[in-house]
Amino acid sequence: MKEKSHLLLKEQLCFPIYATSRMVTRLYQPWLDKLGLTYPQYLVMLVLWEEQRLTVSQLGKRLYLNTNTLTPLLKKLRDKGMVAKERSKDDERTVHIELTEKGQELKAQAEDIPANLLEAIDMPVEELRQMREWMWKLLGKFDD
Q1: Which CATH number fits domain 15-140: 3.40.250.10, 3.30.70.20, 3.20.20.140, 1.10.10.10?
Q2: What is the DSSP letter of 144?
Q3: Name one GO molecular function term (predicted).
Q4: Counting beta carbons within 10 angstroms of the beta carbon of residue 46, is it exposed (0 to 12), middle (13 to 18) or buried (19 or more)?
Q5: Which of 7, 83, 118, 132 could form a disulfide with 77 if both were Cys (CB 3.0 to 4.6 A apart)?
């Protein structure tokens, strides 16, 4: 009996996204090891290098992560001295996360990572730029 074509792995949208994500994350690993960061911690740092200070919920929204996923990441970054945590004086339920001096200094060590990744992938920059735009467009479909 012949399989329905829509059930073939090569016809799925989810698989190339998943597999590409795993492979790209693997490419990052040697550079992140030098920084002492995991890939999810690196994503947190990217947002904080851009914004400096955010609430946990704002950070979670930017990274599409739930608080229960984000909290252990933030604790580890705090333990490494990269971020500081402060409860809001107006509302104790609100927690602000901000870079420490050490966290800010790490940014200079990470500056070459995007260029290194482009070199490792070895595809035309314009194709990668277009792919990134399509992925952001798709991801935007999941915004609340």
Answers
A1: 1.10.10.10
A2: -
A3: DNA-binding transcription factor activity
A4: middle
A5: 83
Q: Max Cα separation, the chain?
A: 66
pLDDT per residue rounded down to tens, the chain (144 residues): 566 789 999 999 999 999 999 999 999 999 999 999 999 999 999 999 999 999 999 999 999 999 999 999 999 999 999 999 999 888 888 999 999 999 999 999 999 999 999 999 999 999 999 999 999 999 999 886
Pairwise CA distance, residues 24 & 9, whole Å = 20
Who contacts 78 (Cβ-Cβ below 8 Å, separation ≥6)?
84, 85
- Predicted TM-score of the model (pTM): 0.91
User: Could you state, in order of their start, the residue ranges of all structural domains in the chain?
Assistant: 15-140
